[in-house]
Write a structure and sequence with these properties.
This protein is α+β, with helices and mostly antiparallel strands. The protein is 28% helix and 22% strand. The structure holds flavin-adenine dinucleotide (FAD). Flavin-adenine dinucleotide binds next to strand 3, helix 6 and strand 10.
């Protein structure tokens, strides 16, 4: 047990007092040696070798200096770190893969609970289930499961952590065939604010199991997930680049909506990158860079892709049968983009919407401006809206607009551009997928949880985290009923 409030000077200075005091505690050495003595996992403090690397997150432009970074090796150690945060009032950041766009996985002056050392994965190929700890990325899990011809669906990027993507929902290349990541979540182990380790599933703590399927990191620290695995071995898909005209964009979306559930698509409208496989005359010109995955028989997959290839003469056509894990090529660990971004749902992308997209992309002054269109539906839409805390099941298309830029002082220009662009695209009721939210304020977090979802989450939060210990996230404040 860690010593509680050793120094009476700490009283009254805890909580939202900012980084200086926390840093002073660390400097005084009141907490770090003690934590080191109780954990097998590493505790990294300012001045230690590797501190700067350890506090770096995926998103560029985030430069926070935590008082300590604890890397527990098991759930008991996770519980000790959670208790330390509760007892000291230091801000707690929880990190799995470090890809939070809002930078929520690193704290200024607080504690980072970094789950990277917890990497156990047990696959039961006969039962088609897997237990996995939070240090694994989507890509690592997918290549391990791929050895058995099995998969659980995550997102479009291999380096994203299992922890964050699952707790927010998980929308990727198997979404129309097998649903969201949370639709394959069978059970979870969660350390709650009081330090207890709870196993949650449909029968045990069903309220918490409902909440962690979309409610993000608000309810505790997930230490393990049990997933259902699906038979997915060879898929047909890959990259298809088409010229970006209003007709091609609108028809692409129409075809993606009409396609069988086996086919999930992600279409990026962006300047063609100067890559060797892209003919030089297209470099820098707006194209539709689409990624398609048909998770079914190869012959039917080839047939399902015909309409997409026929939309225009492809600039690049890399569609082919491939082992599913190849959808995650290696990521560049040194890539830390600064981005202004907005995400929303729309009901349709017709020719006029496509023109709006092209017009906005053309006037951006960012190093790279991109619009991503994801056609939803299929299996993810067949789960009842109230079954999980992800409640956008009926929304048809997700749109993400982003400006990637280099100088932080240009932030206001690019933030204004994404705000204008999102307003021009808006259709129907407001809504946003929580995992694509940046630091956009409390009203936007509310938009992530439509209808009665918000009230239900706030009540469950009050049950499991009444003091809002887990607050460095897209926060759902506790509401005592
Ligand atoms: C390049 C890129 C591509 C992406 N593509 C997709 C995509 O295709 N589909 C999709 O659905 N999402 C996608 N995302 C969004 C991604 O799902 C979220 O950013 C997610 O939160 C990242 O998870 P992480 O574990 O890597 O991040 P972290 O930064 O480690 O975690 C994010 C937050 O989640 C919470 N959290 C994480 N782990 C735990 C845990 N074990 N227990 C409790 N709380 C925890 C914490 O609040 C934390 O601050 C993408 C993000 C990026 C940067």
């Amino acid at each position: 047990m860690l010593t509680k409030n050793k120094d009476s000077k700490m009283q009254g200075k805890r909580g939202s007092n900012g980084g200086d005091f926390a840093y002073a505690i660390a400097q005084e050495g009141l907490l770090i040696p003690e934590l080191r003595a109780t954990l097998k996992g590493r505790v990294i403090a300012p001045g230690d070798a590797g501190y700067d690397e350890a506090r770096t997150v995926f998103s560029g432009g985030i430069d926070r200096r935590p008082a300590m970074i604890a890397r527990p090796v098991d759930a008991t150690e996770v519980s000790r770190v959670v208790s330390l945060a509760r007892e000291t009032g230091l801000e707690l950041a929880v990190r799995s893969g470090g890809h939070s766009a809002a930078g929520h996985s690193v704290s200024e002056g607080g504690i980072v609970l970094d789950l990277r050392e917890m990497r156990a994965l047990h696959i039961d190929a006969e039962r088609c289930t897997a237990w996995v700890e939070m240090g694994l990325t989507a890509g690592e899990y997918t290549s391990a499961a791929g050895k058995y011809g099995l998969a659980t669906g995550f997102g479009d990027t291999g380096s994203v952590g299992i922890g964050g993507i699952t707790l927010g929902g998980g929308i990727g290349y198997l979404a129309r065939k097998h649903g969201l990541t949370i639709d394959s979540l069978l059970a979870a182990e969660i350390v709650t604010a009081d330090g207890q380790l709870l196993r949650v599933d449909a029968k045990t703590h069903p309220d918490l199991f409902w909440a962690v399927r979309g409610g993000g990191g608000n309810f505790g620290v997930a230490t393990r997930f049990q997933f259902r695995l699906h038979e997915v071995s060879t898929i047909v898909g890959g990259m298809l680049i088409l010229p970006a005209t209003p007709e091609v964009i609108a028809s692409f979306i129409a075809e993606a909506e009409a396609a069988p559930d086996e086919l999930s698509t992600i279409a990026n409208i962006m300047p063609a990158p100067p890559m060797p496989f892209v003919p030089a005359e297209h470099h820098g010109r707006l194209v539709v860079m689409a990624f398609l995955v048909y998770a079914g028989a190869v012959e039917s997959g080839a047939r399902a892709l015909v309409p997409f290839r026929a939309l225009a003469t492809p600039i690049v056509d890399m569609l082919r049968p491939m082992p599913y894990p190849e959808i995650y090529p290696p990521d560049d660990a040194s890539y830390h983009p600064i981005a202004a971004a907005r995400s929303l749902f729309v009901d349709a992308v017709d020719r006029r919407t496509a023109e709006t997209i092209l017009n906005h992309l053309q006037v951006s002054t960012a190093a790279m401006a991109v619009t991503q269109l994801r056609v939803l539906g299929g299996a993810l839409a067949r789960v009842p809206v109230e079954a999980t805390a992800y409640a956008h099941r009926k929304r048809r298309i997700m749109v993400n607009v982003a400006a990637l830029y280099e100088r932080l002082e240009d932030a206001a220009v690019h933030e204004a551009w994404v705000a204008d662009f999102a307003a021009a695209l808006r259709q129907g009721v407001a809504g946003v997928y929580v995992n694509f939210l940046g630091n956009e304020g409390a009203a936007r977090v509310r938009e992530a949880y439509p209808g009665s979802t918000w009230e239900r989450l706030a009540a469950i939060k009050a049950r499991y985290d009444p003091t809002n210990l887990f607050r460095l996230n897209h926060n759902i404040p506790p509401v005592i009923e």
